[in-house]
Specification:
Helices cover about 55% and strands about 0% of the residues. By secondary structure, the protein is an all-alpha fold. The radius of gyration is 11 Å and the shape is globular. This is Helix-turn-helix domain-containing protein. Keywords: DNA-binding. InterPro entries: Cro/C1-type_HTH (IPR001387), Lambda_DNA-bd_dom_sf (IPR010982), TransReg_Diox_bact_type (IPR050807).
Length: about 80
């Protein structure tokens, strides 16, 4: 699954607007909008911040989808 699709799915499951997710993650609305629409690729730090804000138990899946996790890498 593409990161943008996964982000949107998780955000909607938690009933969060992009603005609310931005407040929780410390990432601006415009950046989140661009990530979710596939215009930009998130940084590793952004993926970790989003995982924390979305209360994803293990961020390894999101990191892998975004192309950052390597096999055997520990979840943070």
């Amino acid at each position: 699954m593409e990161f943008a699709s996964k982000l949107k799915e998780l955000r909607q499951q938690r009933d969060l607007s992009l603005r609310k997710l931005g407040e929780k993650s410390g990432i601006s609305y415009s950046i989140l909008n661009s990530i979710e629409n596939g215009r930009i690729h998130p940084s590793r730090d952004n993926v970790i911040a989003l995982a924390y804000a979305l209360k994803v138990e293990h961020n390894g899946e999101l990191l892998a989808i975004a192309g950052y996790a390597t096999e055997g890498e520990e979840d943070q």
